[in-house]
């Protein structure tokens, strides 16, 4: 279950994802340490991608899951060391703007690392601003991300 | 392509010239390759051959060549495995994606037939057969028939793929288990590719026990679907240069102990040491006493000991096995020459490699063992099992919040009346590539059956017995050795050539048995020659599950009870009224080797594998269009066209910042992939369950999320749908 904002209605995560998609609202996921641990399962990246998840911000990633997220065009972001949803006072009801990637990707071919500026605006208008580390670690991953996933990347290469 | 170290050269085998990326070239740059573990030499060759200055740089190569055994892994490398192995559970979605790429290629105005695996990809259909029928001559045919009835949509899709894609081969149902087929037939050990290079065979697989092939000196392990697809499409697998733990084997296996006992001991040893995320490599004088099949058994269980893989370097025994299993003389010669040329051929005189740690194992200390009741690393010697079970039982009952008890429940079934209690063995399964690929343990099982049957012993009526070989070769040599009639006499008729009980496809127990287990809240047991026994994996009604060698599986089917001490108590009573002990029916190593030597032949392998891609009549009867794109069925609930490429153009769109986003879920630490995408039951009232019901699928036909991975509509509805997921946006609520 989750809560759909701004309606405040409780519904299944799938239903909320579909509401956001219908409204043209991007969705993101927040998490803690070792996000995506356990056996490597491709649907753990494919499913969120199809639900419309654009970015995941966590304290740390399990290695293979992070690369699977990029493989499906989802942006893996990491809180800066020592920070997390709790320490930043985030409860998930905020509206999020993640800025900086567009400029990087228009200036460079295959940008890796760096940070984005995140602004989380609460319903009372007060906002929390923080930096998140971009976990696109290699040039190949940047190419996959630019193409919205590894399958699209390979397809475009073969189609030329 | 770059060649910083001037490693590229050529060598001749049988009048043919092959290009080669020589490891020895690194010596001129101060790197002594002979001190590297063999597993790292394979990685090093891979990088040398693919040096391009971008994905593989000269510093990556130097990082492997100058590997520091004690360093924490930190250097990420781009590794390009030579091929991909799949099974049907995980392979279907990968092939669905390839098929969707063909549609997308067409939409982009390109030629769909250009979408193919760029590396050889092979898929073995082994995960779907269930043990419905057993203990009868017709069981094999009956189970195969039901398998086709349940999986028709997926099989028609795979058969289309078999014809449509280049570089893609499907081994149809009923032929064997992917890892055994890989060992006996698919693996090349040394490949000679279109590039003109000869190079070590390497692979990734979509099944965790892909590691078995390391027994044949081929580096391989299991990965997730996206990584496998990427590898298939020629993209590198990103990995950290690992630590490598050596296991020095010495001594010889004593009389009465089997390779299964050895692997359980290895698992216990390595679990205690801790090898997660590391490579393991076997070395030492014991190697020369270890048959290739025994090595494969040990390599198989790498996921159980926690390692990425457990490699046995190529040596004379590897070559002998390649010949025995029907590989061409040309292939064997290429393997030998190449490996020697690269100083990758292991002999007794090979210099000792450096390892992160070096553990010792004296094979002379191995004793008949089982492992359980729920973890493969919890080994217990046969002599101790009956005692240990008393503790296991109390723990299992306490864990379920129940009082310890000694309930007896009377059962009347098929004109027989008997009592079930805690410890009654209700499943005895000779299953799993771990063991069915090993003629010595399979023949040992046949010999126990023969000696038991000739004394008039019978398996207990409450035991569901089954034999599921991993290839047709097994039935051929059991037949040639004269053992089949005795296995059949004890109910170990062949139920299928596939994974069966090993992955939980045990099929139902008789209603009378289930009712008795429920009525008495009994801790019933299974004994299986598989590699895993997590709670609930083997069967929902067997709460104590013990892994054991095939001959011990037969023994426990005869005893029907893990409370019996098979070392000290009788296993049964002969026709003449005399007591029979396990030692009376246990074969000697010489007896086993006599039959293995006389019955397992090169001709058998050649014959079994000649038509392996043709399949049974049922496969041949499936109609598959010869179209280059798949004819997606609008009413299919298993195979659907995923929307990954909808609206995609040839050019990428500019990357945009994410504005005004909402949080779908806020999760705590350690969220697992199983929380994000559960594999098991599809709850009736979940979005996925509602979707299936809306299409007229009845609850009993829901099947699992795992089996419906070819249908994105089901999978996206199940995402974040684990019944135990905790989303902090809804405090106190568990589940999707």
Please tell me about this protein's structure.
The complex is a heterodimer of chains A (160) and B (736). Chain A is of the alpha/beta class. Chain A contains six helices and eight strands, in the order ββαβαβαββαββαα. Chain A has helices at 13-23, 43-51, 63-71, 101-107, 139-146, 150-159, and strands at 2-4, 9-11, 27-30, 53-58, 75-79, 95-99, 115-121, 127-134. In chain A, the strands form two sheets. Chain A has a six-stranded mixed beta sheet with strand order 3-4-5-8-7-6. A two-stranded antiparallel ribbon of chain A has the order 1-2. In chain A, a hairpin with a 5-residue loop joins strand 7 and strand 8. Chain A is globular. With 736 residues, chain B is an alpha/beta fold. Chain B is 34% helix and 16% strand. In chain B, helix 7 packs across helix 8 and helix 10 (316-324) runs antiparallel to helix 11. The longest helix of chain B is centred in the N-terminal third of the chain and has 26 residues, at 139-164. The relative contact order of chain B is 0.12. Chains A and B meet through strand 1, helix 1, strand 3, helix 2 and strand 4 of A and helix 3, helix 6, strand 26, helix 23 and helix 25 of B. Strand 3 (27-30) of chain A pairs parallel with strand 26 (658-666) of chain B, so a sheet runs across the interface.
């Amino acid at each position: 279950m989750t809560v759909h904002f701004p309606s405040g209605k409780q519904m299944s995560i799938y239903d909320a994802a579909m509401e956001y998609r219908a409204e043209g609202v991007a969705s993101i996921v927040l998490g803690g340490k070792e996000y995506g641990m356990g056996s490597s399962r491709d649907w753990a990246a494919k499913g969120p991608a199809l639900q419309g998840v654009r970015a995941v911000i966590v304290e740390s990633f399990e290695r293979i899951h992070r690369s699977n997220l990029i493989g499906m065009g989802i942006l893996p972001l990491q809180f800066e060391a020592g920070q997390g949803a709790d320490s930043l006072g985030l409860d998930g009801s905020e509206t999020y703007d993640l800025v900086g990637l567009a400029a990087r990707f228009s200036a460079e071919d295959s940008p890796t690392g760096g940070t984005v500026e995140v602004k989380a605006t609460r319903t009372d208008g007060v906002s929390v601003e923080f930096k998140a580390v971009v976990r696109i670690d290699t040039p190949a991953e940047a190419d996959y991300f630019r193409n919205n996933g590894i399958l699209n990347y390979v397809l475009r290469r073969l189609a030329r | 392509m770059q060649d910083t170290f001037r490693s590229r050269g050529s060598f001749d085998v049988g009048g043919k010239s092959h290009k080669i990326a020589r490891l020895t070239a690194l010596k001129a740059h101060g790197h002594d390759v002979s001190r590297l573990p063999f597993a790292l030499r394979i990685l090093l060759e891979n990088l040398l051959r693919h040096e391009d200055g971008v994905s593989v740089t000269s510093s990556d190569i130097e990082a492997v060549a100058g590997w520091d055994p004690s360093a924490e892994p930190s250097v990420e490398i781009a590794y390009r495995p030579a091929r991909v192995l799949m099974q049907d559970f995980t392979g279907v979605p990968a092939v669905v994606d390839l098929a969707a790429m063909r549609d997308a290629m067409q939409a982009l105005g390109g030629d769909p037939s250009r979408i193919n695996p760029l590396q050889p990809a092979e898929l073995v259909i082994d995960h779907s057969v269930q043990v419905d029928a057993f203990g009868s001559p017709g069981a094999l045919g009956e189970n195969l028939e039901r398998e086709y009835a349940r999986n028709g949509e997926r099989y028609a899709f795979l058969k289309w793929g078999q014809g449509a894609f280049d570089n893609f081969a499907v081994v149809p149902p009923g032929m064997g288990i992917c890892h055994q087929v890989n060992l006996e037939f698919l693996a090349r050990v040394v490949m000679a590719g279109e590039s003109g290079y000869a190079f070590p065979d390497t692979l990734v697989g979509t099944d965790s026990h892909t590691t078995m092939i390391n027994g044949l000196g081929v580096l391989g392990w299991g990965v997730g679907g996206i990584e496998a697809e990427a590898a298939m499409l020629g993209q590198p697998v990103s990995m950290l240069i690992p630590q490598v733990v050596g296991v020095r084997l010495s001594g010889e296996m004593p009389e009465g102990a089997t390779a299964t006992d050895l692997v359980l001991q290895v698992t216990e040893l390595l679990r205690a040491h801790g090898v997660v995320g590391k490579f393991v490599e076997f070395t030492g004088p014991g190697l020369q006493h270890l048959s290739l099949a025994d090595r494969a058994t040990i390599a198989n269980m790498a996921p159980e000991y926690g390692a990425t893989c457990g490699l046995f370097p190529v040596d004379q025994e590897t070559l002998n096995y390649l010949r025995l299993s029907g590989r061409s003389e040309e292939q064997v010669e290429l393997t030998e020459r190449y490996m020697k040329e690269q100083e990758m051929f292991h002999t007794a005189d090979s210099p000792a490699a450096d390892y992160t740690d070096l553990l010792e194992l004296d094979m002379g200390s191995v004793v008949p063992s089982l492992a359980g009741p729920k973890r493969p690393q919890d080994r217990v010697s046969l002599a101790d099992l009956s005692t240990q079970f008393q503790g296991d039982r109390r723990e299992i009952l306490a864990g379920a919040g129940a009082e310890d008890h000694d309930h007896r429940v009377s059962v009347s079934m098929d004109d027989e009346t008997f009592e079930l209690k805690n410890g009654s063995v209700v499943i005895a399964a000779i299953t799993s590539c771990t063991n069915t690929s090993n003629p010595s343990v399979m023949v040992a099982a046949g010999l126990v059956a023969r000696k038991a049957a000739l004394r008039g012993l019978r398996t207990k009526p409450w035991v569901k017995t089954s034999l599921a070989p991993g290839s047709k070769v097994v039935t051929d040599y059991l037949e040639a050795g004269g053992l089949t009639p005795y296995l059949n006499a004890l109910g170990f008729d062949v139920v299928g050539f596939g994974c069966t009980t090993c992955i939980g496809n045990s099929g139902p127990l008789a209603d009378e048995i289930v009712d008795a287990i429920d009525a008495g809240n009994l801790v019933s047991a299974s004994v299986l020659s598989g590699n895993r026994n997590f709670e609930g994996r083997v069967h929902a009604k067997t709460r104590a599950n013990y892994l054991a060698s095939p001959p011990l599986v037969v023994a426990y089917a005869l005893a029907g009870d893990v409370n019996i001490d098979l070392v000290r108590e009788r296993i049964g009573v002969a026709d003449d009224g005399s007591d029979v002990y396990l030692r009376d029916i246990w074969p000697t190593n010489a007896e086993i080797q006599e039959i293995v030597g006389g019955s397992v032949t090169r001709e058998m392998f050649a014959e079994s594998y000649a038509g392996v891609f043709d399949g049974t009549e049922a496969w041949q009867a499936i109609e598959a269009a010869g179209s280059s794109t798949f004819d997606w069925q609008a009413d299919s609930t298993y195979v659907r066209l995923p929307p990954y490429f909808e609206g995609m153009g040839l050019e990428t769109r500019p990357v945009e910042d994410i504005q005004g986003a909402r949080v779908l879920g806020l999760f705590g630490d350690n969220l697992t992939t199983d929380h994000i995408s559960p594999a098991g039951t599809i709850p009736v009232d979940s979005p996925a369950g509602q979707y299936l019901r809306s299409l007229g699928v009845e609850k009993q036909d829901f099947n699992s999320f795992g089996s419906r991975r070819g249908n994105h509509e089901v999978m996206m509805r199940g995402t974040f749908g684990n019944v135990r997921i905790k989303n902090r946006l809804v405090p106190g609520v568990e589940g999707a």
